[in-house]
Specification:
Elements (H helix, E strand, L loop, with lengths): L1 H25 L4 E5 L8 E6 L2 E6 L2 E5 L5 E8 L8 E9 L17 E11 L2 E7 L7 E7 L8 E6 L7 H4 L5 E7 L4 E3 L2
Antiparallel strand pairs: 1-2, 2-3, 3-4, 5-6, 6-7, 7-8, 9-10, 10-11, 11-12
Bound molecules: calcium ion (3 copies).
């Protein structure tokens, strides 16, 4: 009996490892979106390939993500409810603060972590509007929608476990759905 249990455990473990590997591979899925976010009459094309984003308008490259960003998902929506469309990106990168570290932060800032960045196109250029520091629970999937039909969009997030030891295995089991609303300077959790 004990041997049978051991075999069942080993089979489950193998399935979990294969599942985690499949999730890892699916992270590099390609995504292309076309939308005229700045209402200039020309659609932009957002090409997410190999976790790198390139944005074109009239076949002209107008923005590309830094090489050290690993972008998992992008979305075009009115995330902050100001009637303009933003680009939001879920990405992984080293370091929480980028080039500008807060004065109180000492030591090395090179932890590989998940972030949510919000950008907007203005006069033909892409500018950052809001960038999160390292998220405690990484985002596995996000959508922006008005799910309660009150006229304002919310950010819906599927969160994974905290990063660290055996993260790829633990993310198979830990999932939490949360809703967030833009409050003028950041996202505030709704429930
Ligand atoms: Ca445009
Ligand atoms: Ca907006
Ligand atoms: Ca709403």
């Amino acid at each position: 009996m004990k041997t049978v249990l051991k075999q069942v455990f080993l089979i489950l473990l193998a399935a979990a490892v294969l599942g985690a590997a499949a999730l890892y591979i699916s992270d590099s899925a390609a995504q292309t979106i076309r939308k005229d976010t700045d209402s200039n009459g020309y659609q932009e094309e957002y090409r997410l390939v190999d976790n790198q984003l390139r944005i074109y308008e009239n076949n002209r490259l107008i923005w590309q993500s830094p090489d050290d960003w690993n972008i998992r998902q992008i979305s075009l929506a009115d995330t902050d409810n100001d009637h303009r469309t933003e680009l939001i990106m879920v990405l992984w990168k080293h370091g929480s603060y980028g080039d500008i570290k807060p004065f109180w932060f000492k030591g090395k800032d090179n932890q590989y972590s998940c972030h949510l960045f919000m950008y907007r196109m203005r006069t033909g250029k892409y500018k950052a509007i809001w960038c999160s520091s390292a998220l405690v629970n990484p985002i596995i999937k996000m959508t922006v929608e008005d799910s309660d039909n009150n006229g304002s969009n919310e950010l819906h997030v599927l969160e994974g476990p905290r990063t660290g030891f055996a993260y790829s295995l633990r993310q198979l089991f830990h999932r939490e759905e949360t809703r967030w609303i833009w409050n003028g300077w950041g996202f505030e959790r709704m429930d």
